[in-house]
Amino acid sequence: xxxxxxTRWSVGGWRGLLLWKKIAFALALGATLGIxxxxxxxxxxxxxxxxxxxxxxxxxxxxIVPLVFISLxxxxxxxxxxxxxxxxxxxxxxxxxxTTAFAIxxxxxxxxxxxxxVGIELGQxxxxxxxxxxxxxxxxxxxxPNNPVAAAADGNILQIIFFAILFGLAINxxxxxxxxxxxxxxxxxxxxLKLTEIVIAFAPYGVFALIAWVAGTYGLDxxxxxxxxxxxxxxxxxxxxxxxxGGLITLVAKLNPLRFFQGIFxxxxxxxxxxxxxxxxPVTMTAVQQNLGVGxxxxxxxxxxxxxxNMDGTCMYQGVAAIFVAQAFGVDxxxxxxxxxxxxxxxxxxxxxxxxxxxxxxLSLVLTSVGLPLEGxxxxxxxxxxxxxxxxxxxxxxxxxxxxxxxxxxxxLDEDVYNIPHCLKTPV
Length: 428
Ligand code: ASP
What we know:
Elements: H1 13-16, H2 19-39, H3 43-77, H4 82-114, H5 136-142, H6 148-154, H7 157-174, H8 179-200, H9 203-217, H10 220-223, H11 227-252, H12 257-263, H13 265-274, H14 277-290, H15 296-309, H16 312-328, H17 335-351, H18 358-369, H19 375-381, H20 384-409, H21 415-419
Helix pairs in contact: 2-9, 3-7, 3-8, 3-9, 3-14, 3-15, 4-11, 4-15, 4-16, 4-17, 4-20, 9-13, 11-12, 11-16, 11-20, 13-14, 13-20, 14-15, 14-20, 15-20, 16-17, 16-18, 16-19, 16-20, 17-18, 18-19
């Protein structure tokens, strides 16, 4: 673990700036440029700037499969106590489900109060095809890969996690003869982390390009009519982030919440602009380990799992969106309908992939469960990117909060690192 950037104060100018400051600056500059391009009718320029962002996202995605596999195997081989792994697993799942329940409750509460769908002009919309929910058994069996190489090629994170845990366990159980493998995985881990740091150093440019593209292509004329749903979701995300995660970090982990939010600023911003929590995973992993002092044995398991199944922002969004659609189409919801929305949103969010727009596709599941018109999906689609930004940032924050809590409870958190105001290194 490399807690501090020893050179960060010694280099002046842009290069010497802490990464989070660079990212904040890039965000403000990109948004300003985007708004200017939009107002001056230069959307095409905004489209072409997006290419820089797309290249950055491709570079982070390139890291996901090797990073998850290598860091999980190497994390597994660093713990010999198998009961501890079981405990970490149970705590993580309990945290993920518990906070998702809070998220959907907050979302439904806010949607009922703000009434985002009241007075919406519907216009001509066509319904997309409804999604079929896979059965629980199918999903569970699907976690076992027929072929681990195919799982890696498809980027199937749950299957990779499954194989990596077993492989790490086997290295431990094989003892002495497999010891060289343990060292190889530690070496591979150091190399893949270095590569991740190098790619992350380009985050300011990616963030700049993506936000300039969003601000440049979504004009106020598109956003204003659906302003209330945007407001409701952003408010819900802020409340959930500050009150639920901030509260848990303060009261349960007994840590300073400000440090937590400072330490995860980079992944939050990359999530916000890329709208992919899986794509952000390498950034989240590096930030949680380097900025917050979490050990590898916890974070290499909780974060990939969280990026795949823990989506508090998505769950909240599905609840808010379902109520929005009901209000927009003048459908009265019963108490049973609300409970159904809560349940299906939770399940749909677990099944949502951590990629851009996946939550919108899964929304059809929630709408179908209470008989709401699927045309609602088309109404929201026009501004979904803006909603996706907030929910993805919250998804990633939730994964990091869980990781800190579990690490603290397992004594795998270096509080000295956690308590230093610091930031990711800028290695290039
Ligand atoms: N974009 C979200 C994520 O990657 C998923 C969603 O669309 O809700 O976390």
